[in-house]
Automatic annotation (TrEMBL):
<comment type="subunit">
    <text>Homodimer.</text>
</comment>
<dbReference type="InterPro" id="IPR020672">
    <property type="entry name" value="Ribose5P_isomerase_typA_subgr"/>
</dbReference>
<feature type="active site" description="Proton acceptor">
    <location>
        <position position="111"/>
    </location>
</feature>
<protein>
    <recommendedName>
        <fullName>Ribose-5-phosphate isomerase A</fullName>
        <ecNumber>5.3.1.6</ecNumber>
    </recommendedName>
</protein>
<feature type="binding site">
    <location>
        <begin position="102"/>
        <end position="105"/>
    </location>
    <ligand>
        <name>substrate</name>
    </ligand>
</feature>
<comment type="function">
    <text>Catalyzes the reversible conversion of ribose-5-phosphate to ribulose 5-phosphate.</text>
</comment>
<dbReference type="GO" id="GO:0005829">
    <property type="term" value="C:cytosol"/>
</dbReference>
<feature type="binding site">
    <location>
        <begin position="33"/>
        <end position="36"/>
    </location>
    <ligand>
        <name>substrate</name>
    </ligand>
</feature>
<feature type="binding site">
    <location>
        <begin position="89"/>
        <end position="92"/>
    </location>
    <ligand>
        <name>substrate</name>
    </ligand>
</feature>
<comment type="similarity">
    <text>Belongs to the ribose 5-phosphate isomerase family.</text>
</comment>
<dbReference type="InterPro" id="IPR004788">
    <property type="entry name" value="Ribose5P_isomerase_type_A"/>
</dbReference>
<dbReference type="GO" id="GO:0009052">
    <property type="term" value="P:pentose-phosphate shunt, non-oxidative branch"/>
</dbReference>
<dbReference type="Pfam" id="PF06026">
    <property type="entry name" value="Rib_5-P_isom_A"/>
</dbReference>
<dbReference type="InterPro" id="IPR037171">
    <property type="entry name" value="NagB/RpiA_transferase-like"/>
</dbReference>
<keyword id="KW-0413">Isomerase</keyword>
<dbReference type="GO" id="GO:0006014">
    <property type="term" value="P:D-ribose metabolic process"/>
</dbReference>
<feature type="binding site">
    <location>
        <position position="129"/>
    </location>
    <ligand>
        <name>substrate</name>
    </ligand>
</feature>
Length: 235
C-alpha cells in the first residue's frame, strides 16, 4: 500500500533531521538534492542557528545552494575545499547492498562529484525507496551531452533500455541539468540484474556523461518508516 503523502513527508523529515545530527563542529559537508535532502539542509540550518560551527558546505545543485544560503549555512565550493568530511543525500532506489539509483531530480552528475569528494556518504530515505533489484520502480537516468542525444539513445536501446528524453514538468521542452545537459531515462523492463555491468556499459558510451547508478558509494543508510528509524549498512 502506498503511504499517505503526509506520512511520507514525516518519514523524509525524520531521516533528514537524524542525518543533521551527524554533522560536527569544524566539518566540511556535502549537501544533497531533492525533497529528503531539503529536510536535511533545513535541519542543518537550524543546528547552525543554535550554535553549530561548520567550516562550510558544498551543494550538489543550484537549488540546494539557494536553500543552504536561505537557512544560514556557509557555502563553499570544491575549488576551495576539494575534500569533504560527510555527504548526505537522498536516493530514488536503494538495494540491500546499498547500491543506489539517483537523479530523479536531474542532479546526478554534481551529486556524484560531491559524493566522491566526501570521506563518508550517508544516504537518507523513506522506506518506500528500498528495493530488492535496482531499476524496478524508476528508470536509470543518464546525463547526456545534447549534441549526442540520438547516437547515445541508439546505444542505450542496444543495451535493452527503453529510452525517454526527460522533459520539464508540464512542458514539451527538454529538462536541462545544472551543467547544460539533458537526461535520458532508461527503463530496463525487468529491472537491472547486474548494475555493475550495465553501469560499465553505459559509461562507455561517448556523449553519455554519467549514470544515476551510485554503486559502492554509500556506507550507511538512514531509513525512516512505519517502525521508526533504521540505520542500514551494506549486506
Ligand atoms: O536528482 C535528484 C537526486 O538524486 C535526489 O536525491 C533523488 O531523486 C531523491 O529525491 P527525493 O528525496 O526527492 O525522493
Amino acid at each position: 500500500m502506498i503511504p499517505h503523502e503526509n506520512l511520507l513527508e514525516s518519514w523524509k523529515k525524520a531521516a533528514g533531521t537524524r542525518a543533521a545530527e551527524l554533522v560536527e563542529d569544524g566539518m566540511l559537508v556535502g549537501l544533497g538534492t531533492g525533497t529528503t535532502a531539503h529536510y536535511f539542509i533545513t535541519a542543518l540550518g537550524q543546528r547552525i542557528q543554535e550554535g553549530l560551527q561548520i567550516k562550510g558546505a558544498v551543494s550538489s545543485s543550484l537549488g540546494s545552494q539557494e536553500l543552504a544560503k536561505k537557512v544560514g549555512i556557509p557555502v563553499t565550493t570544491l575549488d576551495f575545499n576539494p575534500t569533504l568530511d560527510l555527504y548526505i543525500d537522498g536516493a530514488d532506489e536503494i538495494d540491500p547492498f546499498l547500491r543506489l539509483v539517483k537523479g530523479g531530480g536531474g542532479a546526478l552528475l554534481r551529486e556524484k562529484i560531491v559524493a566522491t569528494a566526501a570521506r563518508r556518504f550517508v544516504v537518507i530515505a523513506d522506506e518506500t525507496k528500498l528495493v530488492q533489484r535496482l531499476g524496478t520502480h524508476c528508470p536509470i537516468p543518464a546525463e547526456v551531452v545534447p549534441f549526442a542525444i540520438t547516437p547515445v539513445r541508439r546505444r542505450l536501446e542496444a543495451l535493452g533500455a527503453l529510452v525517454k528524453l526527460r522533459q520539464k514538468p508540464a512542458s514539451d521542452a527538454p529538462f536541462i541539468t545544472d551543467n547544460g545537459n539533458v537526461i535520458l531515462d532508461c527503463t530496463f523492463p525487468d529491472g537491472v540484474a547486474d548494475p555493475e555491468a550495465i553501469d560499465t556499459a553505459m559509461q562507455r558510451i561517448v556523449g553519455l556523461v554519467d549514470t544515476g547508478f551510485f554503486l559502492k558509494m554509500a556506507e550507511e543508510a538512514i531509513i525512516a518508516g512505519k517502525d521508526g528509524i533504521k540505520v542500514l549498512r551494506p549486506n
